[in-house]
Amino acid sequence: MFKMIGGDGREYGPATVEELSVWILDHRANGQTMVQVEGSSEWQPLSTVPEFAEVLRRAYPDAAAGPTRSESSTHGTIGTIEAWNAVPAATLSAGDCLGRGWVFLRRHFLLVSAGCALVWAILTLSAMATCIGGVLGLILSGALYGGLMLLYLRLMRGQPASLGTLFTCFGPRFVPLMLIAIVTQVFSQIGLLFCLVPGLILKVIWAFALPLAADRGLVFWPALELSRRTAQRHFFNLALLMCVAFLPLLVFEVYGGLRMMTFLTDVLGPPGTWTLDAIQDKKSQLGEFMMTLGLQEQLVVLLSMPFGYAALLQAYEDLFGPRRAGADR
């Protein structure tokens, strides 16, 4: 049995040789990671333990002992981005990810559906229960969605997972996840509101930012930048994957935009003739309509989440996850 000091400075374990080998293949540990053998008081680099020589070679074929500790740290540096860019580009098949996502969802339906419902309920109730609900939801959404993605990823990797996993990002990763959620959601919604295509493009290129921060520990800008660079390499396949995986939500976004424009035209007149006085006069009517449309959208979000994230995170595993031949995702 072994104990390990992670890149975040925390102590993990005890872990068996098999469990620690999985962590190495997940790039959660490397040759410079400090470990302690059970019964010993000394800490030593993982590269000095003979049992892990082969798995280190497989996990880090281009380096004798893997990346430096600073590169694998949860502080997320630009060096981490460059390290990923140096890895030969993986292939991404939208059809394969959708198929594996469906198999995964059937296998873990109860747990992932409960996780999605709990995250949705917390964010929805926080938005409805307080006068600053929208702001509170943005603040909490990064950590909650990050925890939800960790729940998916741990199940895909055969690691222990429970509803408690949803709250594991309320710690050092909270602020980066909060900032990522705020920026990606606000700018994507602005893009969707004024012109559908820019909003969809932003959703695609930032699709991996939250899981990178939650799973790999990258902070705000490195997570956004690495997601953008990777998504650009596979843009059309990733866009197709997301359109199919979140199809109910995509259809509703189009419907909601058309419905809003029709409603505003009926209430305020043709675009270009709207005035602040007219908007003030119809404020209660507009507020009621927006609340109804928002609740409808949240129901569609809930229905889309279980399969949508199952398929998307299969793509994340193909591009960023453990490079294990024959791994069962």
Outline of the structure:
By secondary structure, the chain is mainly alpha-helical. It contains 15 helices and 4 strands.
- N- and C-termini, Cα separation: 26 Å
- Gyration radius from CA atoms, angstroms: 22 Å
Strand order of the largest sheet: 2-1-3-4
Average pLDDT figure: 81
Global shape = elongated
Explain the layout of strands and helices.
Blueprint: E1 2-5, E2 11-15, H1 17-25, E3 34-37, E4 44-45, H2 53-59, H3 69-72, H4 78-86, H5 94-107, H6 109-129, H7 133-156, H8 174-194, H9 196-205, H10 209-216, H11 220-233, H12 235-245, H13 247-268, H14 276-281, H15 283-320
Antiparallel strand pairs: 1-2, 1-3, 3-4
Question: How does this structure look, described?
Answer:
This protein has 329 residues and is mostly helical. The chain folds into two domains: 2-39 and 61-73, no CATH class; 94-320, no CATH class. Helix content is 66%, strand content 5%. The chain contains 15 helices and four strands. Helix 5 (94-107) crosses helix 15 (283-320), helix 12 (235-245) packs across helix 15 (283-320) and helix 13 packs antiparallel against helix 15 (283-320). The chain starts with a strand and ends in a 9-residue tail after the last helix.
